[in-house]
Amino acid sequence: MSHEAQGKSNEWYTAKFIFDALDVKFDLDVASPEDRSFCNVPATRFFTNKNDGLNTGWIGFVWMNPPFGDRKTKTAWINKFIHHGNGIALFPDRTSASWWQLIADNSDAHLFTKSRISFIKPSGELGNQPANGTTLFAIGSKAIQALKNAEKNGLGKMYCSLKV
């Protein structure tokens, strides 16, 4: 588990209701925590810091909730996701940011969640509600279907790109 200088973990886990709404299984979680005690990702395989998901080859249908570091880090994860071309990625709503526009321009669909999502702390406690909303981005037909499931299940509103 990675830690900030103050000794606090910078890992946050995606709540189970997100995956329940998507109603899909993943082949790979590309940015999983070392300790998956409170990890809800329904995946067969998991890449952690030790596996270095950013620099290791991805296979199959992926889930990506990457570290939300600086812009360069986000852009690297986004480029890898776009190049892989098969999965769902979660990012904060920052529609004016160049990295957000990059993934929006290169995804097949996206879903804006209807409310701000609180993530789970490494202790298992629910964190405070963040200042920003959340966008799920889909690339590939299975990912598009998962976002359709999520919209039908009340998670938010889905939008398809013009290329679909």
UniProtKB/TrEMBL annotation:
Its GO biological process annotations read: DNA restriction-modification system; methylation
Q: Does the keyword Disulfide bond apply?
A: no
Q: Which InterPro entries does the UniProt entry name for this protein?
A: Dam_MeTrfase
Q: In this record, what's one Pfam family?
A: Dam
- What are the record keywords, sorted? Methyltransferase, Transferase
Q: Give the Gene Ontology MF terms in alphabetical order.
A: DNA binding; site-specific DNA-methyltransferase (adenine-specific) activity
Record carries keyword Repressor: no
Source taxon at top rank: Bacteria
Q: What is this protein called?
A: Phage N-6-adenine-methyltransferase
Q: Which organism is it from?
A: Tenacibaculum caenipelagi
